[in-house]
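Q: I have 456 residues here and want to know how they pack in 3D. Can you give me a structure?
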Amino acid sequence: MPPGRVLTEGEVLDRYVTDTYWKALAARAAGAPLGRPDVVVKPHSDEEVAAVVRLANHYQVPVVPWGGGSGTQGASIPTHGGIVIDLTGMDRIVEVDERSMTVTAEPGVNGKRLEAALNQRGLMLPHYPASAELATVGGYVAARGSGVLSTRYGKIEDLVVSLRVVTPTGEIVDTLPVPRHAVGPDIAPLFIGSEGSLGVITRVRLQIAPLPATRHFEVVSFPTVEDGIEAVRKSLQSGLRPSVVRLYDEVATRITLSPVVGSELPGVATVICFEGDAGVVAAEREAMLKLVRAHNGDVLDSGLGEVWWNHRYDFYAPPHAPELPAVWGTIDVVATYDRLVPTYHALQEAVAKPYAARGLKLRSHLSHWYPWGAMIYGRFVLPDGGPDAVTLHDRIWKDGVTAALGAGAVINDHHGVGLKLAPYMAAQHGAGLDVLRRIKVALDPNGVMNPGKLGL
């Protein structure tokens, strides 16, 4: 690899000490980062990635793949030093196949740039995560991410057609060219959500879709979270497929949604989007609003939905997003409908109430819906953690995760595990974690790939 793409300068290494994980940001601010690479390499091809990984495996040097650095869980932090493979130099959009409706891209392609390129052709990757401005295609897949259109189009694993991966021992492997087949187990899902612990993703083929002919928004308000959940559950289970459903509880409606849309919304405000053929959109809208009204929902100004869409990324930037010395985190949990409301209330009891005296606000919304259940995105913010901020942060997380597991939820829908949730993987998976560990050992016998993550 050319010397200019093997970097050891201190100011360069310092760029790789944190993603957006609160503890990593706080540690960097305190001058004691959670991890720092010894060297950064910037490959431009599969073969260069494989050569680096083979060398690292031979000498048992840790390797951490790096994309946009937008993760929230600390998955890309090189806690054991070693080599960071910065994949942003592999940023080609290899092929757009309009007959099969797929796009093939290298892992370093920025999400926003990919979307712009597809939009020019009248197409889209129906993913649209909040991190699109920073995140990369490889990161989408490695973290098993989700986007705002997931209720209609699914999460990233529903859009993956095939992958190319460099294994921990340096082989270049292509998964089969289709995601559904009966020629034995499918190996692609091993790498989706593996956060660089089982290999380096170097090429992704994804399902794309036409830009919708019509995109229509509605904003409705429910008196309670329970009313809103029932209306959405019955809508999805009757076969309706809105692309967006974002149900904000009363706290989130007041302090999260209302400031962004510029209007004081009542109750449990919910943004809904229907898209596709105009006739289908009209029919779905009519059917879902009938269910909304049957569950005590009021239909508000639909123009507010357009405002939300145009400002949907503003939630994650100042002044709406917190900054140090605040303490924050997102307790992202997913549950089947029979456990969804108990999980919501369990988080209120474990996080919102006990820490209210410290100034904590828990603002929750439900934004990724399935016929069987939904995700709760519980965002907590403390204005200032004070001298015990790290201890307080960890205690809030422990209380929230314990409550979610006790209510029968799963502790993550789409943010990944990284460092943050690694301590809870045994409680979540039980004996299944040992299966994952055996897979890890089989693929990565020297333990070089992103050590310390995923509880492996």
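Q: Anything worth noting?
A: The chain has four domains: 3-88, 91-210, 214-258+269-309, 327-415. The chain is about 35% helix and 20% strand.
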